[in-house]
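Same chain as my last thread, 157 residues:
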Amino acid sequence: MRFLLIDRITEWEPGKRASAVKNVALSEDFFDDHFPLKPIMPAVLILEGMAQLSGLLIEEGVRKESGRNVKALMSIIEKSKFRRPVYPGDKLVYGAEVDSVNELGGRAHVKAHVDGELITECAFVFTFHEFHRPQLESRRSEILSLWLKGSHVHGTE
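reply #2:
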């Protein structure tokens, strides 16, 4: 199973805010077992998509402001509540806003909507870990480039 749970970033202001979409397709591997005859996207994977967007948003803000090459690792999920299931054919829209950042980590508030209806919202707290692995950095840059491709976004200069 691939763990890239964003299809495209639609708004991008590193260190401030971002939006992204995930088109939920019946062909996703997780629908085989969750659940047969009544496919529902696992809530933990919705949270993962939200964490991917907000973590990357915070990382890029740190890179832009200080030049530090950090990886934001999720350490806390605050007050997550799911209001309805997400089904194949739904288009998840994630929105993230950075609340705070310091030398040790950051916090972002994130929401997920389908057709304008709030599915869930929460805050993620991340800790920073510095890394110096060219292969990991190359993969990260490749993924970000893929997600931003063709989008009209701020902060990609």
